[in-house]
Amino acid sequence: MTETAVQIEKVRGPWADVWAQFRKHKGAMAALVMLGGLAVFCLLGPLVWRIDPNFIESDTVKMFKMRNQGPSLAHPLGTDQLGRDMLARMMFGGRISLAVGMVAMLVAIFIGTTVGVLAGYFRRLDGVLMRLTDLFLALPLLPLLLVMMFLFRDTVAGILGPRLGTFLLIVMAIGLTSWMQAARVVRGEVLALKEREFVLAARSIGTPSRRIITRHILPNVLSPVLVAATLGIAAAIITESVLSFLGLGFPPDFPTWGRLLYDGIAEIRTYPERVIWPGLAISLTVLSVNYIGDGLRDALDPRIRGR
Question: What's the pTM?
Answer without folding.
Answer: 0.82
